Amino acid sequence: MSEKSDEMRSVWKAVLTYLKLQIENIRLVSTEKSAILLSTGVVAAILGIMLAFALFFISIGLVLLLATALPIFWCFMIMGGIYILLGVTLYLMRTTLITDPIARFLSRLLLDEPDADKQQKSL
Which residues cross the membrane (predicted)? Predict the structure, then answer.
């Protein structure tokens, strides 16, 4: 009877050790994925701000270029029309250009299991 009791204790210890390791693995993976998600969001925000500044200066340059041939009022109206056209195009293609890439990124980040072979090779 003592042998079965010792065997049960060792099995129980192994199960507890396994559960502790699984919990630690979940903590590490969730921390890693949260860091990737947060850093991607920060990079996207910074790039968005830089793109907004670039578009602003390009718009001013195009207005000044058009002003050599047209009155300044019509140059601003043309640039406004271009931005409206770009906005409508973006709205019509929002699923293809925005929703699908974000959904693919999040599903790849959150649902794909880390490949142990890739991690070992990178070390």
Answer: 35-65, 71-92
Residue-wise pLDDT tens digits, 6-53: 888 888 999 999 999 999 998 998 899 899 989 999 999 999 999 999
**Closest by Cα among 64, 86, 94 to 76:** 64
| Global pTM value | 0.67
DSSP 114: P
What's at 108, amino acid-wise? R
d(CA 71, CA 63): 10
CA 51 to CA 55: how far, in whole Å?
A: 6
Nearest 5°: phi and psi at 70? -130, 165
